[in-house]
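re the bet — no i am not wrong, look at it urself. input seq straight from the record:
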Amino acid sequence: MEDGIIIKEALLLFAEVFSAGAVVIGALFALCRWIIRQNKQDAEIKSLKEEQSVICYGVLAALKGLREQGCNGPVTEAINKIEKHLNVQAHK
C-alpha cells in the first residue's frame, strides 16, 4: 500500500510543479506579447506624428499663400498660432 501512496504523492508533486511552471510561462508569454504590442504602438504613434507634422507645414504654406494674396485677419492669426505650435514642438 505504501507504493500507491508514494506514487500519488509523486503525481501530486509533479502536478504542482507543472502547474507552477505553466503559470510562469504563461505570465512570461503575456509580458512578451504586451512588449511587442507596445513597440508596435510606439512605431504607429511616431508615424502619425510625422504625418501630422507634414500636414501642419502644408496648412501653414496654404495660409501663407492666402496672406500673400491679401487675406488678413484670421489667416494671420492662424499662421501665428501654427508657427508658435511648431516652434514649441520643435523644442520638446
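see?? Residues 2-68 form the longest helix (67 residues). told u. also Residues 2-90 form one domain. so pay up
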